[in-house]
UniProtKB/TrEMBL annotation:
InterPro entries: ATP-grasp, ATP-grasp_RimK-type, ATP_grasp_subdomain_1. Residues 102-285 form the ATP-grasp domain. Coiled coil: none annotated. It comes from Photobacterium alginatilyticum. Keywords: ATP-binding, Manganese, Nucleotide-binding. Residues 407-427 are annotated as: Disordered. It comes from the Bacteria. Pfam families: RimK. The keyword Nucleotide-binding applies. This is ATP-grasp domain-containing protein.
Length: 498
């Protein structure tokens, strides 16, 4: 008698407009059933998204949620209690902001640089004026520093106050400066390290990002670093995970970043797909095997080839005991099954400090107990825009409305009549031609590429990318990290025309 095959859960890929896709169907090679796609369109799209998931009878939604949609997807997950999110919103808690990384590490006693987070301006300024320097100031909101662009070293109270007056980062996220030899990124699948590499700063510098001139190599990653990354992955109950760990000049290890959203070669995303298929259907798929420290050999391959290599698999060696020797013990870092836990560890009602403390309006640092010798710079148009966008706004229509207010106040020319409304009922955004001119004004960005960016993303998509997801611009041909940094500098320092 033939036993009926056990049915498989229905998988849906979670995508968002204007956000680079981490997974593709090809990462789940061998899954026999149709894999659905569900796209979140921002704005007032929550209920439509929920209804589509229900209509397609999806059991498992797989994909990362960007910081700007995190709180919305908290609500979506609550409205879909029978749907399993991979990673869970609790696992993705650290994706949203640096402050969330700090809360996560404090709870699980994971080592991080000494960090202060301030939601009240008076408290931040009091600390700035009385602490020891140097310090590191980071933009808290969002999971990535985009090549170190939103990380700043300040050597005095005057520098710190000036930085906050210019950048308007909220909350004030301030860390002790850790003199580093390097940092190490560790990527894990099922709590097993599958890739790790050093990032070393250029001589005389402190940023380790390769876009800032840093170098990288894959050899001799300390076991203590791998063990720390495993501890963090287990604490987050993460199916896949990445940690950036600082190595101080005294060989102390502290976590700088950790998240499920990270840059990874396609073959690593394939490995995650293999793992998730086994996790969801162990009766149909074998447990994958990842050779320990495989990165030491794969890292010798040119990166241009690594970017195209797919579906790499390892055979597990067997050991004969014919001569009486013992077979080697299991690998130190085993591939483990992550547990599916219902309920919430990090409910927004308790942990969304950013929105609970946010104060709307102009620069909160203006005229507040600043040192007498600090002159507050006049905010540029882009800084006015950032002051409204860098506070964790969830509703994309509100982002568009606030951006439109900034542009209308700055007097940017538009053929639209004053006070005109867009179809969504909010103030008019800048014209596409104005954004094309902006991109063309950046060295190395020609008219064809400028037009392609605006045509592909649209005005609202371009504004969203510039303020919250800059890295997605590198998906366009011939737009690499150096050009991205030039775009961001122009956007940060000047008005529409750089």
């Amino acid at each position: 008698m033939t036993m009926p095959k056990q049915s498989l859960p229905r998988i849906g890929m979670l995508y968002l407009d204007h956000v680079l896709r981490f997974f593709d169907k090809s990462n789940f090679q061998g899954w026999p059933d149709k894999i659905e796609q569900v796209v979140y369109h921002w704005g007032n799209d929550k209920q439509r998204f929920i209804d589509e998931v229900k209509r397609k009878k999806i059991d498992v939604l797989i994909g990362n949620v960007p910081a700007t949609a995190y709180e919305t997807f908290r609500e979506i997950a609550r409205a879909l209690p029978q749907v399993r999110f991979i990673p869970t919103l609790d696992t993705q808690f650290s994706n949203k902001s640096k402050e969330n990384v700090t809360h996560f590490c404090h709870k699980y006693q994971l080592p991080i640089p000494k960090t202060k987070i301030f939601y009240q301006v008076e408290e931040a300024l009091a600390y700035i004026n009385n602490t020891q320097y140097p310090k590191i100031v980071k933009r808290s909101y969002g999971p990535s520093n985009y090549g170190g662009y939103f990380v700043h070293k300040v050597d005095s109270a005057e520098e710190a106050v000036r930085l906050f007056a210019e950048k308007r980062y909220y909350p004030a996220y301030i860390q002790d400066f850790v003199p580093m030899k390097a940092d190490i990124r560790v990527m894990l699948v099922g709590h097993q390290p599958v890739c790790a590499f050093w990032r070393r700063p250029p001589e005389g510098e402190w940023l380790t990002n390769t876009s800032q001139g840093g170098s990288m190599d894959y050899q001799n990653v300390p076991e203590e670093v791998l063990e720390l990354a495993v501890r963090a992955s287990k604490a987050a109950n993460a199916e896949y995970w990445a940690c950036d760990i600082a190595v101080s000049t005294e060989d102390d290890y502290t976590i700088l970043e950790c998240a499920t959203a990270f840059a990874a070669f396609p073959y690593i995303r394939d490995w995650i797909g293999q793992y998730l298929m086994w996790l969801l259907a162990p009766q149909r798929f074998d447990k994958p095997y990842f050779a320990h420290k495989n990165w030491e050999e794969l890292g010798k391959i040119d990166s241009s080839l690594l970017r195209t290599m797919r579906h790499i698999r390892f055979g597990q060696a067997s050991h004969s005991t014919d001569t009486g020797e013992y077979a080697p013990a299991d690998e130190q870092y085993s591939l483990l099954e992550t547990r599916h836990v219902r309920g919430e560890e990090w409910p927004s009602e308790a942990w969304n400090f950013q929105d609970m403390h946010r104060v709307a309006g102009a620069n909160p640092y203006s005229g507040k107990a600043q040192r007498a010798d600090v002159i507050e710079p006049r905010p540029t148009q882009s800084e006015q825009l950032e002051s409204r966008l860098d506070t964790g706004i969830e509703d994309f229509r509100e982002v568009r409305a606030r951006a439109a207010d900034c542009y209308s106040q700055s007097g940017v020319k538009s053929e639209t009549k004053p006070g005109a409304k867009s179809d969504s009922g909010v103030g008019q955004l800048p014209e596409p031609e104005e954004l094309v001119i902006f991109f063309q004004s950046v060295k190395g960005i020609g008219k064809v590429l400028s037009q392609e960016i605006v045509d592909t993303l649209g005005v609202s998509g371009v504004l969203h990318a510039l303020e919250h997801e800059p890295q997605q611009l590198t998906a366009f041909r011939n737009l690499k990290q150096k050009k991205l940094e030039a775009i961001l500098r122009c956007w940060e320092e000047n008005e529409l025309i750089c």
